[in-house]
């Protein structure tokens, strides 16, 4: 505090007739702290009034955008924008129209979901049905093949039996026992032939 | 006690729409000719604590004279909001929802007891189904005399259920507050 006071006085002293005032002040002050004061006082007072300092204050006029401050360093977090002039807190829905619109929206959404579910189920069912039909067809084919094979074998056997019977009829000597000879039919025929 | 906010209304209706069809509109705006057509006495939803009640506006207005701490319940409790903001339907809502049910399942009398004691509904106990019910959709379970018993979720679609054996589960019990 003391140095500023002194400086002001110093200035005033300069502007007016210098000698008597300075002398009086000097005489008053000099009693307390005579040696220390004058040099720093003068330097500081000059610095404040100088045009250089004024220029510095002008330099400070940056806007926040110019400074490129990271957004997260703000008091309000980035992305949170408080709408001005809007009601604080909860917004209630109590009128029928508002409720109806919400209900209509929800219903439409729900029906869409159900529809898609049904479509999906139907498609899956179709695929399943097609697969089942294919499997059935394959099964039927297999069965028919088997039947065919069976039939052909039976046919063969019949033919053989017929031919055998013919041969048996040709041979004058009847076989000893037909049932036992069946398995050994070939051998016998070979041996007898 | 207060009105529902927009988000709350949406969650509530979404949950109700799980079990009901379009006729749920009648809950909010009763059709002309019914008793509750008076605009001053229309049915409303109110939240007290975290529970949602369905009641007439006149009763709701009367209830404002009771301090919050002293107000235990009013109207019909539909369900409650969980702390995560979801909605859970209570069995007390059955009377409100049953007349507007989208899908219904009627169970035979021999299946009533297992269902009421917290079991699922097996195919053998099902008496009748609504047509074309998709998989995992909400149904209201009725007994043979058309009394609503509770809620359920279908395990299979109607088409698939026909192929299943009688002991297979047809409907999962959804809200297990029956007994």
TrEMBL record, chain A:
GO-annotated molecular function: mRNA binding
Localization, UniProt: Nucleus, Nucleolus
Domain of life per record: Eukaryota
Start-end of Basic and acidic residues biased regions: 36-53, 130-151
Annotated spans, Disordered: 1-69, 130-193
Function: Required for efficient assembly and nuclear export of the 60S ribosomal subunit.
Protein name, as recorded: Uncharacterized protein
TrEMBL record, chain B:
PROSITE patterns on file: PUA
Subcellular location: Nucleus, Nucleolus
Residue intervals passing through the bilayer: none
Domain of life per record: Eukaryota
Free-text function comment from the UniProt entry: Required for proper 27S pre-rRNA processing and 60S ribosome subunit assembly.
Protein name per UniProt: 60S ribosome subunit biogenesis protein NIP7
Keyword check for Nucleus: yes
One Gene Ontology term from the biological process aspect of the record: ribosome assembly
Subunit structure: Interacts with pre-ribosome complex.
Sequence similarity: Belongs to the NIP7 family.
UniProt GO molecular function: RNA binding
């Amino acid at each position: 505090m003391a140095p500023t006071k002194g400086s002001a006085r110093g200035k005033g002293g300069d502007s007016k007739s210098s000698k008597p005032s300075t002398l009086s002040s000097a005489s008053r002050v000099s009693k307390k702290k005579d040696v220390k004061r004058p040099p720093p006082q003068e330097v500081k007072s000059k610095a404040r009034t100088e045009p250089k300092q004024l220029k510095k204050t002008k330099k400070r006029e940056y806007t926040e955008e110019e400074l490129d401050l990271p957004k997260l360093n703000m008091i309000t977090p980035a992305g949170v924008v408080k709408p001005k002039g809007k009601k604080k807190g909860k917004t209630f829905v109590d009128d029928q129209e508002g409720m109806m619109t919400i209900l209509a929206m929800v219903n439409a959404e729900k029906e869409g979901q159900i529809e898609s579910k049904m479509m999906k189920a139907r498609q899956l069912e179709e695929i399943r049905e097609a697969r089942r039909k294919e499997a059935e067809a394959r099964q039927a084919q297999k069965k028919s093949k088997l039947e065919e094979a069976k039939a052909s074998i039976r046919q063969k056997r019949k033919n053989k039996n017929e031919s055998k019977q013919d041969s048996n009829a040709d041979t004058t000597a009847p076989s000893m026992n037909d049932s036992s000879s069946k398995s050994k039919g070939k051998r016998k025929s070979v041996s007898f032939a | 006690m207060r009105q529902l906010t927009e988000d709350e209304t949406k969650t509530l209706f979404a949950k109700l729409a799980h079990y009901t069809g379009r006729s749920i509109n009648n809950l909010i705006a009763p059709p002309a000719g019914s008793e509750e057509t008076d605009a001053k006495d229309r049915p409303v939803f109110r939240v007290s604590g975290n529970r949602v009640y369905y009641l007439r506006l006149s009763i709701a207005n009367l209830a404002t004279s009771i301090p919050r701490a002293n107000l235990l319940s009013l109207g019909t409790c539909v369900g409650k909001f969980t702390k995560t903001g979801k909605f859970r339907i209570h069995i007390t809502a059955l009377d409100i929802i049953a007349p507007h049910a989208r899908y219904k399942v009627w169970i035979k009398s021999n299946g009533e007891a297992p269902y009421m004691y917290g079991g699922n509904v097996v195919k053998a106990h099902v008496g009748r189904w609504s047509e074309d019910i998709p998989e995992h959709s909400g149904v209201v379970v009725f007994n043979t005399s058309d009394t609503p018993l509770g809620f359920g979720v279908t395990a299979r679609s109607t088409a698939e259920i026909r192929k299943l054996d009688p002991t297979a589960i047809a409907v999962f019990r959804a809200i297990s507050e029956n007994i």
